[in-house]
Amino acid sequence: MTHPPYLSPDYRSSILRAPSRPPVALTADPDAVELTSPVFGHGELGGLDADLTRHHVGEPIGERIIVTGRILDSAGRPVPGTLLEIWQANAAGRYAHQRDQHPAPLDPNFTGAGRCLTDDQGRYRFVSIKPGAYPWRNHHNAWRPAHIHFSVFGTAFTQRLVTQMYFPGDPLFPYDPIFQSIPDPAARERLIARFDLETTEPEWALGYRFDVVLGHTPTEES
Amino acid sequence: MTTLFPAPAPVPSRAAGPTPSQTVGPFFGYALPYPGGPDLVGEGHPGAITITGRVLDGAGEPVPDALLELWLGETGTGGALDRTGEGVSGFGRCPTEPDGSYRFRTARPAGPYFALLVFARGLLRSVATRIYLEDGPDPLLDALDPARRATLIAEPDGEGYRFDIRLQGEKETVFLEF
Ligand SMILES: [Fe+3]
After folding, report:
1. Are strands A113-117 and A206-209 parallel, antiparallel or unpaired?
2. Chain B positions in Cβ-Cβ contact with residue A41 (cut-off 8 Å)
3. Cα(A74)–Cα(A20) distance, rounded to whole angstroms?
4. How far apart are CA B7 and CA A123, in angstroms?
5. pTM, to two decimals
6. pLDDT score of B101
7. Would you say A148 and A86 are in contact if contact means Cβ atoms under 8 Å apart?
8. What is the dihedral of CA B20, B25, B27, B31, to 10 degrees?
9. Which of residues 12-71 of B touch A (CB under 8 A)?
10. How far is it, in rounded angstroms, from Cα A143 to Cα B141?
11. Which of A94, A144, A166, A208 is flagged as catalytic?
């Protein structure tokens, strides 16, 4: 199984929010609205949206990174022109969000939200800084491994995916109930970006590769 | 469309299967909502309706940190992300308020229902449902018992409709799998 079950009691917030009944399987209806997806235009995005280090006057503190990869459908075909949105904590592990009370410094030069459309090969590329780990109140001494939140559309509403990208070798993986909510260890691994020397730019930024494979839609052969 | 990004070396994807879902978490509020997101049509649009409601958890408590996405099936003329111009959008996004409430202003869908996705802290994967504006013969509705069926039908409410989403419990909304 790829996805986490809705109810994953170690992740406390799931206990009162997980649906208790299995979802109703929708039999193949070629006219279902869910088989289509909004189309986003380049004109709707700002030119710097994909470079999170250039959203303010100065440069953010932290380890500069390039995150790039492809968005693929379940058959491995690239998904061009689809919208990705990312958000993340700053290098100190603090979100630019009112409700984040972690006593780590905010960075006046880093907001941590970006957007990008995939190119004709299904590729995307963000420039950012490596986010820090941060504490949360799920259990005693709970810390989230460093991650970037990803939101991807795809070609059908059924493919809509929100997930988190992690960094290789994080010592917090075994202790994180959100990462561990994915039952299959091989599926978990698919959320870990790979360090990539080809993507790394000399004297500039470390490169990471992260491909996203969307779920199949009912009209495709699975 | 052009090739915008330098090609990374063609390393084979490690992804030998679909990418798993993870929760949207509590801190999407400064990143995903955007101006005009809940307003798929302008205020004066002929035939505009509002869809309002609340997202509730298994204890009946409001869910103040959910994100709803409404989809009509056609992109429309107004842009989905840039809602500064004229025109109608087929896509809307609305975060819930501290009391769990949301509000969309939209045109009617071409068919009998809207598609709706709900994301929230505590939901490791989004839930998908439909908002039907009227009860009537329908392959999905007809397969449900009356109490379950009722969870998918919006209630007329003033100039619009009311539709609550109950994530868990006795009157749990019907969620869909494709
Ligand atoms: Fe996070």
Report:
1. unpaired
2. 79
3. 28
4. 8
5. 0.95
6. 98
7. yes
8. 30
9. 13-32, 57-59, 61, 63, 69, 71
10. 43
11. A144
